[in-house]
Amino acid sequence: MTMGKFAVTPGFEVGGAMFRPEQLAVLGSIIGEDAKIELTTFKQLYVEMAEDRIDEVQTELKKIGLEIYPSGFYTKSLIACHFCRGAEDAGLEIARKLNEAIAGLATPGPLKIGYAGCALGTSEPLLKDIGVVKIKDKFSIYIGGEPKSIKAGIGSLFLSEVPEEMLIPQVLKLIHLYQKYGKMKEKFARFIDRMTVEELRARVS
């Protein structure tokens, strides 16, 4: 039996992205006995199951409010905070738009993008490849966070005072540069070291 894999997320809400019990019950009931579910570090479930049933299963999962994304070397769905300051103050709508723009883009290596609606940064955006932090009505973008290995480190401030209308274009420019100049399986942090922050900043400004 040929197996295929895809990612599942619950989407964004005030209070955080959470799977509802009934969603997990449906997921477990329809994927089949031979399927496997893996909990990832970027708030996705990876589902590995019979490839010939994937389209059917994904359709049913979308009906119950779950979001479907590709697994592997792609931009992951946005890893966001719990929007504890409220939808408007924390920027829930721009986070949703950012997710729609970036999730599922093919990249040289898996790319994690974090979003925090205030400077508390509870979603740990500075440990993501690209981190977005909302400060009042503007945004700061950090790049190169690395949470693993003996060379773990926080991201560097890339741009500050970014207006809302420029946030998604700036993040997409960064991703496109990684797509164009990144080497296969090259981590984003290593890509930044090779290209340099200054060069990348010049290319997106």
TrEMBL record:
Protein name: Nitrite reductase
InterPro entries assigned: NO2/SO3_Rdtase_4Fe4S_dom, NO2/SO3_Rdtase_4Fe4S_sf
Domain Nitrite/sulphite reductase 4Fe-4S: 91-204
Record Pfam families: NIR_SIR
GO molecular function, one term: iron-sulfur cluster binding
Keywords of the record: Iron, Iron-sulfur, Metal-binding
Presence of the UniProt keyword RNA-binding in the record: no
